[in-house]
């Protein structure tokens, strides 16, 4: 699984959007820190950054009429099995009021093209979205 470039979120088909929500939930929970080639970069940043990204996903889901468990709206929440974050583990010395867009610098124009190509291989054609 991957985290789609954030400029694609509002254009993702239902399956990819809901899959992205599941991926965010997994990464915020026991998946945090577990290596996976396409999302390893996420662990270079604070879990709060992933929470902000997940909020983008949840907002889009709500716009489309999907329900999101309100527990995921809490940045400290990590699922029913994982221990909740505390201030230190959530923010990890990151200046959260200085987060820029895209949230992950890895989500570059090259990554946007990779995501579009990946979707195209699945038969999903989206407009060429600019950075």
Molecular structure report:
- The protein is mainly alpha-helical and 131 residues long.
- It contains four helices and no strands.
Summarize the structure.
The chain is mainly alpha-helical and about 130 residues long. It has helices spanning about 15-30, 45-65, 85-90, 110-120. The chain is built from 4 helices and no strands.
Query: Which stretches are poorly predicted, pLDDT < 50 over at least 5 residues?
Result: none
Q: What's the N-to-C terminus distance?
A: 22 Å
Structural class: mainly alpha
Helix/strand order: HHHH
Give the overall average pLDDT.
Answer: 93
Shape designation: globular
What's the arrangement of secondary structure elements?
Elements: H1 14-28, H2 47-63, H3 87-91, H4 109-121
Helix pairs in contact: 1-2
Descriptive keywords:
Pyr-dimer_DNA_glycosylase; 4 helices; mainly alpha; 131 residues; CHP02328; TIGR02328 family protein
